[in-house]
Amino acid sequence: MSETIFTKIIAKEIPAEILYEDEQALAFKDINPQAPIHFLVIPKKPIATILDMTQDDKELVGHMHFVACEIAREQGFDADGFRTVMNCKEYGGQTVYHIHLHVLAGKPLGWPPYQERLKVE
Ligand code: AMP
Prior knowledge:
It is a single chain. By secondary structure, this protein is α+β, with helices and mostly antiparallel strands. It has a single domain (5-105), classed as 2-Layer Sandwich (HIT family, subunit A), CATH 3.30.428. Helix content is 23%, strand content 21%. It is built from 3 helices and 5 strands; from the N terminus they run H-E-E-E-H-E-H-E. The chain has helices at 5-10, 58-75, 89-92; strands spanning 18-21, 25-29, 37-43, 82-85, 101-105. Strands 1-2-3-5-4 form a 5-stranded antiparallel beta sheet, covered by helices on one side. Strand 2 and strand 3 (37-43) form a beta hairpin. It is globular. The chain starts with a helix and ends in a 16-residue tail after the last strand. The site of adenosine monophosphate (AMP) has 11 residues, from loops. Adenosine monophosphate is lined by residues 5, 16, 28, 30-32, 87, 93-96.
């Protein structure tokens, strides 16, 4: 898989505001926050999209969610709640092809995440 900006963050070749790190995962603040709290949880293993996960990656993807919850409890936004999002490919709005879990918190978040009304045929 080709190198991405996240590979460089894992290798500490470019800076990031790191919130958590272990052998499998890294969490850091999103450079362009879409909520008062917005960070990303990524696996150290490069997986381009969630469609590329294998049977062997199931625990790793679960671990990413577990890390998100640990940070929520640590930072105290677990009580109010938060949103996790993983964008997939073009229509999902994915721009970095190394899977990442967005964690958004700090205010009530709108839903649905698109503006157009679905056309009923
Ligand atoms: P996505 O559009 O789902 O692929 O999300 C990619 C996210 O990565 C966006 O929210 C970007 O703001 C964020 N991002 C890109 N480069 C960096 C960086 N160097 N440090 C932190 N976040 C970044």
